[in-house]
Structures are given as structure tokens and as C-alpha cells.
Amino acid sequence: MKAQILAAALLVGTSSFVLAADPGMPMEEPPVGFTWTGGYAGVHIGYGWGDSDFTDDDGWNLTGQTFGVDADGVLGGVQAGYNWQTGSLVVGVEGELGYLNLDGSGLQEDGVFNDTYGVVDGGFYAGLSARVGYAMDRTLLYAKAGGVYYGGEFSLSDVPTIAGPGTLSGSETVGLGYQIGGGIEHAVTDNWTLKLEYAYFDFGSETVTGFDGGGDPWNYSADLYAHTVKIGANFKF
Question: N or C: which end of the chain has fewer CB within 10 A?
Fold first, then answer.
């Protein structure tokens, strides 16, 4: 009896081994969910609008007088970054490079000549941000914060027909600032994602020095902040 039981056990074990080793038998793989971990690169396009205040520091027209400049325009560029995912938490770092066409001008009205213009011109921008997000499988909600450099310019000038050419002229690069924002990104496939993002840029204040016809300097303080909305597409490596 014991010999029969042993033989039966050996037969069952041998059959199981053969079935498991048979390459003709399909083996089910456990399902694998989407992961945000990995590098990516892509493009974006959008729109920006903002405001700049010019303050007359030295009394070219009236000391302490401030006037505003509204600026807006399209933006576009490229981005690249890397994400790490653990559970539903996604953290990452992203760099971006593009052109932000913030253009606008405003008039300082001093009650006499009303001829001094402050101008904001567009330029290239570059940013580096940290991202943190919450993943719902293929959809990611995220916030971002970091630094940004803007190559646009503040400039000053007088209207030539009123005060004469070259009466006041000067410019200064906008320079460094910070950005905060957030967005939503969705993986359309395992490699392609689409995103919608808002970001606020604040570049603080710079001193713009204009020179009059005699070469004497006159200083204005100029600041700039902007809101941006953009759509983008990324390829995930």
C-alpha cells in the first residue's frame, strides 16, 4: 500500500513539473500598472500676460512717481526632466527653455510733457523647477516651484516729437526671478503624455538707467510679474 501511495505521489509531482516546463503551455504574467518613473522630453506652447511698474527714482519728471506697463504675448519652448514614483507620490525635476514674448509700453504722465515711456520687451527664458505630484494611474496632478531667468528687457525713452531725440534712453535685462505653479498631465500611451500647466513668474525689481542728451544718468526702478498658461506634450523614455 505504501509503495502504491509513493508511486502515485511521484506521478502527480512529475506531471506537474512537466506541465510547468512545457513551453507550449501559455503562462499568465501578472498585470503591470503604469509608472511615472523615468526621463522625458517634450515641447510646449502657450500665452503669458503680466504687469510692470516703473518708478521715477531721481526726479526725471517727478520723484517717486510710478506708472504701469501691461505686457502680454505668446510663449513656446522645450522641456526635459525626470520623475521618481513611489506609491501614488511622484517627485521630479524639470528644466525648460523657451521664448516668452511679453511686450508692452506705458506712459509716465507728469502733467507737463507726458512723454516718457517705459517699455517691456520679450526674450528667451530658462527655468529649473522641482515637481511633486499625486498619481492616479495614468493621470498626474502636480505642483512645481523653482527659479527662472528672463532675457527680456526694460527700457526707457522719451517721445522724440515732444522732447527731442536722445533726451532719455536706457535699457536693462529683466534677469532672475522665481516661478510657482501646477498642472495636470495624462499618459495617452506608455510613452506619450499631454499636459496643461499654469505658472506665476515674479522677477522682482531692476534699476534702469537712462541717459539724457548731456550724458547724465537718471534712474528708474522697474519690476515685472507674469501669469502663463501652456499646453505641452512629452515623450517618456
Answer: N
**Helix (H), strand (E), coil (C) string for the chain:** CHHHHHHHHHHHHHHHHHHHHCCCCCCCCCCCCCCCCEEEEEEEEEEEEEEEEEEECCCCCCCCCEEEEEEEEEEEEEEEEEEEEECCEEEEEEEEEEEECCEEEEEECCCCCCCEEEEEECEEEEEEEEEEEEEECCEEEEEEEEEEEEEEEEEEEECHHHHCCCCCEEEEEEEEEEEEEEEEEEECCCCEEEEEEEEEEEEEEEEEEEECCCCCEEEEEEEEEEEEEEEEEEEEC
CB 122 within 8 A of CB 150: no
* CB 161, CB 129: distance < 8 Å: no
Q: What is the mean pLDDT of the chain?
A: 87
How many residues can be counted in the chain? 237
d(CA 219, CA 204): 16
* Cell numbers representing residue 11 in the block: 506521478
Grid coordinates representing 57? 527714482
Q: What are phi and psi of 22, to 5 degrees?
A: -70, 115
**77-131, pLDDT tens digit by residue?**
999 999 999 999 999 999 999 999 999 999 988 777 778 899 999 999 999 999 9
β-strands 192-211, 38-56 pairing: unpaired
List the grid coordinates of 78: 522645450
How many angstroms separate the Cα of 57 from the Cα of each of 99, 175, 219? 30, 20, 6
